Amino acid sequence: MKKPLIIANWKLNGNKYFVNIFLEKLCYKLNKNKIYNISIAPSLIHLNEAILKTKKSCIKICAQNIDINSFGAFTGDVSATMLKNIGVKYVLIGHSERRIYHKENNKDILKKFIEVKKNNLIPILCIGETLKEKKKKQTKKICLNQINLIINNLGIKAFKNSIIAYEPIWAIGKKIPIKIQKIQKIHNFIRSNIKLYDKKISKKIIIQYGGSVNHKNAEQILKQPDIDGILIGNNSLNFNNFIKIIKIIKNIKK
Ligand code: PGA
Q1: How far, in Å, CA of 178 to CA of 222, rounded?
Q2: 187 in catalytic set
Q3: Which of 64, 172, 221 to mutate to test the pocket of ligand 1 (most atoms within 8 A of CB)?
Q4: Which of 32, 49, 97, 212 is the most exposed, fewest CB within 10 Å of its CB?
Q5: What is the pTM of this model?
Q6: 51-86 pLDDT tens trace
Q7: Which residue owns the Cα nearest ligand 1 atom 6?
Q8: Can you list the positions of beta strands (E) in 10-96?
Q9: Confidence (pLDDT) at 1
Q10: Could you tell me which of 250, 251, 233 has the C-alpha nearest to residue 9?
Q11: Is the CB of 218 under 6 A from ligand 1?
């Protein structure tokens, strides 16, 4: 059985005090318990601190972004090599907030994916449609284009030891009710498409869901056969709610 992967995406939130207290309490609660597969994605400036704080626990640290370059004269940027060097495990790629606010395009996303793989980090490729695309019934087409960007350029093997996060843009940061059956169908669609290329990879790949996940809907979401984890933004900043979500994992039997 795959352990559900729970990732807290803290986005542009937190400070040194918040990161230290949150992670100290989390490590204490988890107490080296190996049944959990948990990752925290703090802001770039708190990555090192988070790594040091969680060293003896099962918690792995995730970066929210990287640069497209490995090194050189790129003022203000951070490379996958640098993240690997300090002990990061996962990197979010193509989050909709980066696609929208930083105008990241397919070319950037592909380059970042390559950088992450080259450095033996695990990419979390974020995909998903806008509200307009949803209304036009283009969800499947959009998701397919976004995963095909990787398959067509790097081959299906690039998805070995990689993660896909289905994050419909209309559901992010909204606290809206989610139609879980519909989300499951999209996850199944994504997995079936990967299966067309490689059965083993389609079985093993983690397909996470993100967008308005909270301690009330997490259990139902995680019970779906094709949802292998959740990426939580807003609700993961509340320690008590995050702990409630983690405890739910014990009830998930797939
Ligand atoms: P949300 O964000 O949980 O606040 O909707 C999810 C995400 O952007 O990863």
Answers
A1: 13
A2: no
A3: 172
A4: 32
A5: 0.96
A6: 999 999 999 999 999 999 999 999 999 999 999 999
A7: 233
A8: 37-41, 60-63, 90-93
A9: 66
A10: 233
A11: no
